[in-house]
Amino acid sequence: MTRFLTLLRLMTVEEWRLHSELFGGRRFAGFPLVLLVLTAVASYALTVIGVPATTLTAGVVGLAFAFGLQTGSIGFVSRDSLSDLLGDVTLLLYATRTLPVSAREVVAAFLVKDVGYYALLFLLPVSVGALVGPAAASDATFGLVLTLWPASTLAFAAGLALTLAASSLWVDGSRLVRVLGLVVGGGALAAVVLARSSGVGFDIGTLAPPYSPLVVAGVTLATVVLFLVGVWRFDFADSGETAARHTGYRWLQHRLGGGPLASLVAKTVFEVHRSSGGVWKLALSSGVLLGAAVVVVRFVGTYVSLPLVPAVLFGAVLGATAFPTYSWLTQVDSPADYRLYPVSERSLYLAKAGAFALLETPVVLVYYLGLALFTDAGVADLALGGGVLVGSVLFLFGLTVLVTGFQPDEFLFDTVRFSAYSLVMLLGLLPLVVAGFVLPALPDVFALATLGYALAVGVVGVLALERAASRAV
């Protein structure tokens, strides 16, 4: 136990040291303040349109769970030793090869550190900020903060443990385990579709804290069990090359036209494919983000007395999947890997763009068409939403590349760049989100204006990508 606590302390100190050196202590320490301000503004805006405190707090708990699901995808990179995901922090994980500590012990300490780290750095300011709006309307008390923060932390830990266990079982499990996973996932999706078609509703307010001791105990027990399963199945083994993968790489390179750029694009695609979880982790990351956004859009829509255009809203929301997809693409290699070769950084940026187009397009198309099944959108609305989708994805991809370079994960903790990124993203996408709420009440010409604006921000994204690539020359 003493060794475990020592590992936990060292990892916490190292996490702070790393980000403080990267961004400066004050800039890094200011990150929670930025989150608090952004959440407070959103909370106040939602309160103005009539969203009660119970719905807001339930929404925070739901989003914390979704954030935990995303963070738990660490299990997908376990076989690649987490080297590209964690950078310098990985030195602590490699201690299992040189020091008398087990891999499970190190991973367990790392995950416990993560829960505490995110609870203080993310969930505490978000919990406080979420209650600014209700407090202004005299609909919240200090006691609500004391219940919301632990509830959101528990939800985050539960989401992390669930994805960690599922991904560890998927990566290292037998075919039977994978088939059972697909059956469970398909059954859950079928249940949602059936419930919707039967008119069965769900009141998000039921997720609002405080919870009964029995619920807390049950969720905590389930989280601990999933956590232990995920840690037990966690594997540091490297994934190997196969002749079949090499053949597939040559085939893709040829289909892309051959040449140096095609080789780089094919390499990136197959690096993602051969990594643990393969391309499925892209679908998972985008699905978690989209699922959380869909819930927010639907429940905000219940408090807006205007007919919505779901296709436009979902098209704008799907644009946000550009960030997690690009993040996965940058984890398979880095510019330093090509220093011995006659490859420019501009070529690397263009290769990432090509790989992004190949991998992101099917993901967003499947999700977009899937969402169409849950709406009554006509052909015109779907076409308009498709245009918004294209513009949003291009805009956020170009913006992400320009602002973050090859380190999108590290940028999240850079307060200045994160604030600038959030502001530009808000300015670019907010008009499209607003259009999704108000278009039915406006003349048809505004639909054309929305499409034109979406394509314009898409062009801005392409120019941002070109700027990032030319800057790297």
From TrEMBL:
This is ABC-2 type transport system permease protein. The keyword Transmembrane helix applies. The chain crosses the membrane at residues 28-50, 56-77, 115-136, 142-164, 176-194, 214-232, 282-301, 307-329, 349-370, 382-406, 418-439, 445-465. It comes from the Archaea. Keywords: Membrane, Transmembrane, Transmembrane helix. It comes from Halogranum gelatinilyticum.
